[in-house]
């Protein structure tokens, strides 16, 4: 079976200012975009284990920008991302937004990209690990909902791969039960997956922290390298220092901002995911590898993750 590529000409939707930034940083122009698309298509076609993988031009360009147009880095990250999507069914299987458990997880609002960019042009994503009852929800379902929202976001957003993104980690409602009910192995796998992504957050802001925060902070710090640790910023219960980093005009009303409320954002993203049901269910099937056809030794989940606790730390560019 030959590799399936969506033969759709790539047309960038970026503004002139953002395109200028891409050109200044990586020499990106129409010719270079087309060159990298053709090179990666040819490379994918030569990989037996990727023959069932479908990736469109938009996906290739997202990787190119996230990897600063380094072809070798693109190949490594693409292979790793598709491999992990295959090896992590707890995150990347059962992607039907209409399943009751996914509907319930989406209604929690644990992963909420803001519709506007901050004053630096960056995408801002709100993460809320304490927004659900840890005894009534499986953390795997919360993660699935978050990854589904992320894929829908990436499908419709080019700019974040040029200007970057920041994460606001809202700790309100997070209890020790959230921590103990979530297997550490799940957190480790989640962090491991992040290293395959073509884009890392510029900063992770912790807000509305509570007495359990130190446990979260210590656990996360143990899984990342020194470069990422430097990107973690703790604001505590007050918001003034956050406003210095992110324009309050785009922040939710819940944070003293002028943007849509968390409840409104939750409804918006739930509907977006439902509207993209076909896309998500196709993505679940198509962004995978066939390990039986990999040149050399096939990669199993045990090969990737090893014995419990032997994960590598997150690599950040």
From TrEMBL:
It holds the Pfam family CRAL_TRIO. It comes from the Eukaryota. One of its GO terms (molecular function) is phosphatidylinositol bisphosphate binding. CDD domains: SEC14 (cd00170). PROSITE patterns: CRAL_TRIO (PS50191). InterPro entries: CRAL-TRIO_dom (IPR001251), CRAL-TRIO_dom_sf (IPR036865), CRAL/TRIO_N_dom_sf (IPR036273). Residues 99-263 form the CRAL-TRIO domain. One of its GO terms (cellular component) is membrane. This is CRAL-TRIO domain-containing protein.
